[in-house]
Input
Amino acid sequence: MPSEAAGAPILSVQGITKRFGGVQALTQVSFELAAGEVLALAGDNGAGKSTLIKCISGVHQPDEGEIRYKGQPVSFAGPRQARDLGIETIYQDLALADNLDVGANVFLGREPARRYLGLLPAIDRRQMRAAANEVLKQLEIEIAPAKLTKPVRTLSGGQRQAVAIGRAIYWQAEILIMDEPTAALGVPEQRKVRELIMRLKAKRVAIIFISHNLQDIFAVSDRILVLRRGRAAGERRIDVTDHDEIVKLMVGADL
Amino acid sequence: MAMTEASPAVVLPEEQHPLLRFLAGAWSWLFLIALLIFFESWARAVYGVSFLLNGLNVQSILVYAALPLLLGLGQTYVIISGGIDLSVGFVMGLAAVIMARVMQQLTDLPPGLALGCGLMAAFLVALIPGLINGWLIAQLRVPAFIGTLGMFGVARGAGFLAANGTTVPVNNPWLFEMGNGKLLGVPLPVVITLVALLALHYVLAQTRFGQYTYAIGGNRMAAARAGVNLRRHTMMIYLISAGCAGVAGMVYTARFSAGAAQAGEPLLLDSIAAVVIGGASLFGGSGTIMGTVIGALIIAVIQYGLVFINVEPFWQFVAVGVVIIVSVLVDQSQSRLRGELPDAE
Ligand SMILES: Nc1ncnc2c1ncn2[C@@H]1O[C@H](COP(=O)(O)OP(=O)(O)OP(=O)(O)O)[C@@H](O)[C@H]1O
Ligand SMILES: [Mg+2]
Output
């Protein structure tokens, strides 16, 4: 498969098939992904995009096919296992606890511990705040200091998306999977998230993102994998294709 | 660490005026103080005495607040996590009755030992409905309102059955001491409540357990994806609530040297009211133990104060009801000011 990045692929998916009862959600889908590469998943509603990433992130177990991560065949019992190995997924709505602040969200489930009065277990909020600050700075995510200690529901959609991404990066994601990261955002915010994706790419993170927005796709991805009714309808490098061709692949019109 | 300003492309609702924000955040404190000033002025003007500088009044208010507050402590965890526990009142009654029954059987034992057995029995029997609540809600995904409403009925029936429909008197000097004695001038029921509230405050504010309680109330799925064990945590929360009801049952039996199935009947609504007045949202995700403490004190001051100034006791219900509604309105207007709620149509 084409991949301009050097070295072996970090992720290789071969012949993935997934059925839900009678529904054939995925049929023999294959692709590869290298570090620092951005792969866009395109396709109509119900094409199987979400199912494909859920197979990779450990939410679903594929019925057939093989997933190799860093050269090793893997089979995740659950999302936690995939995350521990560096495959982070950001879902559109499920990423953050709205009532907690930025630091608490970055560390949710993995809070640093300290001893209160040298005795009682407690979580170290100061460290959480400092580390969250650090990762936001690293990614050049701009959030007013006063907002850092407020519930994240007071942030804008783009900032929230950025917090979710920052969280993944803080925990050293090597593959970052995003399901429609810009769907709920206004245009300036979409641009911010695109910039963020480019910054992660520069940090050699491998990225898979689902989008219905061809503008987004062409702005940030290296390759596009188009799904149609659970099958790979085509895979194109960004520099040898255009909107028209992608749309035709999505709807299945003759080329 | 110099941070840049928020991106100008992002238009967020303006921050409130600092004074307004302070008032909104501290309104329950201010309301409590206003209440105290009101009763103080009334006492001085009408009776020519002080309301607050009277140790007896203060003690009575604190003792009065203790039982609803004990229930409210557990209820705070439940409500923050997005649930509700309607069973606490009758679980408390059941624990009180079982404690009294056990102690009735153990009159041959030394009083301290009999009391120990009674306390143990009360606590264990309270945990059973908590366990069932947790199992229904966490495992079988029964809505909390329904599951604990069912337990409300079960515990009520079990309490009256265990009590044979009457109160269960106990004669034990240690028990009497626990309910009416003092430590450094502070009534023991108040001391017990204080210990429970400090422990539960610490756990909620400082530990992972507390953090996950907020996370579950804010976004269940996010918490689950972050590795929080929803089932175990939910189970623990309902056990905490039932445990608090058990302790309230012990304190009741100690104060009156008798167990009664209806001991906690009027306290259920007070416990929920205390949590809500304290700033928790019934949708989950917010609330604090300290808020609940203020809420319980407000209710106790209203109830005791109205009796003190000779208002017909039924007005208490009206007053507490009005305070609940006002507290929810304040909370909503705060959220609206923060841009978290759509404006009313
Ligand atoms: N858990 C499930 N149980 C049963 N069927 C499912 C499940 N998840 C997905 N499907 C089915 O699999 C097919 C592919 O769904 P999927 O969610 O992957 O599509 P998608 O490409 O992400 O669509 P969209 O663009 O609307 O998000 C659909 O027919 C869907 O109904
Ligand atoms: Mg989808």
The pocket of adenosine-5'-triphosphate (ligand 1) is lined by residues A 20, 23, 25, 43, 45-51 (CB under 6 Å).
